[in-house]
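step 3/5: co-fold with manganese (II) ion
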Amino acid sequence: MSIFVNMNLHEYQGKNLLNDFNVSIQRGYVADSPKEAVECAKKLSDETGTSIFVIKAQIHAGGRGKGGGVRIAKSLDEVEKISSEIIGMKLITPQTSKEGKLVRKVLIAEDVYYNGNSDRKEFYISVLLNRSSSKNMIVYSTEGGVDIEAVAENTPDLIFNEEIDPGTGILPFQSRKIAFNLGLTGLAFKNMIIFITNLYQAYISSDASLFEINPVLKASDDKIIAVDSKVTIDENSLFRHKEYDSMRDLHEENSTEVEARENGLNYVDLDGNVGCMVNGAGLAMATMDLIKLAGAEPANFLDVGGTADKERVEKAFRLILRDSNVKAILVNIFGGIVRCDRVAEGIVSAYKNLDDINVPIIVRLQGTNADMAKEIIDNSGLNVVSAITFDEVANKVQSAIR
Ligand code: GDP
Ligand code: MN
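step 4/5: write tokens
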């Protein structure tokens, strides 16, 4: 069992996925150098006839347009110049930290907002999982574009929902209703139905938890085109999508989480001050509740799995201690198959190997040989205290962070 985590995709990866499901997209190629960007632009020109290009920074954050990460180039020289400005920049958008995010790649896309295309319209369409209704949901609006957050805030009645039963999938009347509510008629109406049907299929088939397309463009020729894409895939499904492995961008992920995954540990970084080391996801969730009940906040979720041996315990301590917010560590391990005395020995020896532990450790070991384990901890002479009941644990966590 693992908890719910998502893998985010870049815009260009999301668009490739859409294209695989015959959802029409703004076409483009990705480049990681200005020279390659020019090659992409040439190829795009040959294929689409476009002479105007959009250079789009590829980072895992939206609002790039507002931060200067989406720019127009009217010649190959401009493609090269603008790409060289964007690649390597720290792009700051309303969705990044104030330090911004390093741009490593740009998408060179065809311009779909050309002059002759004045009768165009921007929509917002997303498909996501609604956990409270256990259904999928299509959220859509006539007011797409860069200010959708303001629309949601000021005129929420302009945002519509359509719930889709995962058992039946999207029904024809539902896609018609959406196209109708978006104010479309004729060919654009028909194209929107195809767009939505295929978008929903892409979402289902890729085990995504979100597909957000903003804007969806209706061009003057009534084509419906995905101009942007934000896709997140449910990590728990990745075992059946080996082909997505290469889409993971480790630069965009929390480095501690990446290292934990490489070591077979299930770690999620959180904001609190009590580090946790637990075996089993259910116990890990209960332990986080316990920390909150003690008036503290968990600094992480960490499931060390079935084999809490010395090496894994030591690795887990190292990962937890990397977080400077950590004021105490709670180890809560149930010895079912693993013997508690072995785990206790592991904790003591890991502690001795780590010279930078300057926070108290509270250990609750229950199960096989728990008594022996307690003795080992109590006699270790280290800054480690043992606790048996949940009350005791809560009290010790409280005094540790005080
Ligand atoms: P975001 O700001 O991160 O959401 O990035 P988007 O991909 O949505 O792009 C931001 C904005 O750039 C869009 O809302 C459009 O207004 C504009 N844009 C995107 N593609 C084109 C294009 O082909 N031509 C022009 N002129 N503008 C574009
Ligand atoms: Mn967008």
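step 5/5: annotate
The CA atoms of residues 26 and 112 lie 7 Å apart.
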